[in-house]
Design brief:
Elements: H1 3-25, E1 34-37, E2 40-42, H2 44-60, E3 65-68, E4 80-88, H3 90-94, E5 101-108, E6 111-119, E7 124-129, E8 134-136, E9 139-141, E10 153-156, H4 166-179, E11 182-184, H5 189-197, E12 203-207, H6 211-223, E13 227-229, E14 242-246, H7 251-262
Parallel strand pairs: 3-4, 10-11, 10-12
Antiparallel strand pairs: 1-2, 4-5, 5-6, 6-7, 7-8, 8-9, 12-14, 13-14
Helix pairs in contact: 1-2, 4-7, 5-6
Length: about 260
C-alpha cells in the first residue's frame, strides 16, 4: 500500500462527495431531518454521502472495513478500517450555516495512519499520513507557536447530551474566557482539529466525542507537530470520548485547568 497515493485518492473522493453535499445544501428542507436521539439529527444527505464514500474507499483499499457514523455498512476489516463521518456539522448544515466537513481516517490495527478533513464550503482539504506531514490544499501546515494561554485562541464543542459534566465544563469556560483571546464553538470537531493543525486555533478540548468525529483530525494535529491527549494528559484513544489537542506548547497549562475542573 502506497499511503501517499492512497491519501490522494481519499482527497479526490472527498471533493467529489463534497460537491454533492454542496448542491444539496441549496435545496435542503428541514422536514427532511430525522432524529437519532436527543439533539442528534441526520438526513438523507448524510446517508447518501456515506454510501458514496464507502463505495469509493472500497475501490481504493478493498481489504479494509469501516466504522461509520450512519452505519450504512457493518463490514469490519482484520487489519485496516476506515473511520468516516460523512457530514461532520450536520446541525450547521440543517440550519443553513456553512461550516461542515467530511472526515475520513484510516486505522491500521490500533494506529491511525491517514486523515483527510474536507471543509466543503471553503474548499479547503486538510490531509496527513503517518510520518508524511500535514497539508492544506497540498501546502505544508504546522501548528502555532503560542506558548501561553493568554496568547491563544481556543476551540471547543458544547455538549448536547449526557449533561453530567456540564458544571465542570462551564467552570473551564469561565476561566478560559478570562485568560485567552477567546473560545470558539464552530460546530464540527473535525474542522476544530484541522484548524489546530494549521495554527488558526492554538488548542481544542471537548467531551462526548465519537471516533468518527476526531480520527482524521488526530492524524492532522500530530503530523503538523501538535499533541493530542485525554483530559488526564494520557495518550488520547479515539474510544475515550474526550480530547485535548494543542500546539504542544500550551499542553501543560491547558491540561492543568481541565484536570482541576473535571477531576
Amino acid at each position: 500500500m502506497e499511503i501517499q497515493k492512497l491519501t490522494a485518492g481519499v482527497i479526490s473522493l472527498s471533493k467529489e462527495v463534497g460537491e454533492f453535499i454542496r448542491r444539496e445544501a441549496l435545496v435542503f428542507k428541514r422536514e427532511h431531518v430525522e432524529y437519532k436521539g436527543l439533539h442528534d439529527m441526520v438526513s438523507y444527505v448524510d446517508k447518501t454521502a456515506e454510501i458514496s464514500i464507502v463505495k469509493g474507499l472500497r475501490s481504493l483499499l478493498p481489504v479494509a472495513g469501516f466504522v461509520t457514523e450512519e452505519k450504512t455498512t457493518t463490514i469490519t476489516g482484520e487489519k485496516y478500517n476506515w473511520i468516516i463521518d460523512p457530514l461532520d456539522g450536520t446541525t450547521n448544515f440543517i440550519h443553513g450555516l456553512p461550516t461542515y466537513s467530511i472526515s475520513i481516517a484510516l486505522q491500521c490495527d490500533d494506529e491511525l495512519i491517514l486523515g483527510v478533513v474536507y471543509e466543503i464550503n471553503r474548499d479547503e482539504c486538510f490531509s496527513a499520513w503517518k510520518n508524511g506531514g500535514a497539508y492544506l490544499n497540498n501546502k505544508r501546515i504546522l501548528v502555532s507557536k503560542a506558548s501561553r494561554i493568554e496568547n491563544t485562541l481556543l476551540a471547543t464543542g458544547f455538549p448536547y447530551y449526557e449533561f453530567g459534566k456540564l458544571d465542570a465544563y462551564l467552570a473551564v469556560l469561565k476561566e478560559l474566557m478570562q485568560r485567552c483571546h477567546g473560545v470558539r464553538r464552530i460546530g464540527s470537531a473535525a474542522i476544530d482539529l484541522a484548524y489546530v493543525a494549521c495554527g488558526r486555533f492554538d488548542g481544542y478540548f471537548e467531551f462526548n466525542l465519537n471516533s468518527y468525529d476526531v480520527a482524521a483530525g488526530i492524524v492532522l494535529v500530530r503530523e503538523a507537530g501538535g499533541e493530542v491527549f485525554d483530559f488526564t494528559g494520557g495518550n488520547s484513544s479515539i474510544e475515550r470520548r474526550e480530547m485535548v489537542a494543542t500546539n504542544g506548547l500550551i499542553s501543560t497549562e491547558l491540561l492543568q485547568i481541565l484536570e482541576e475542573k473535571f477531576n
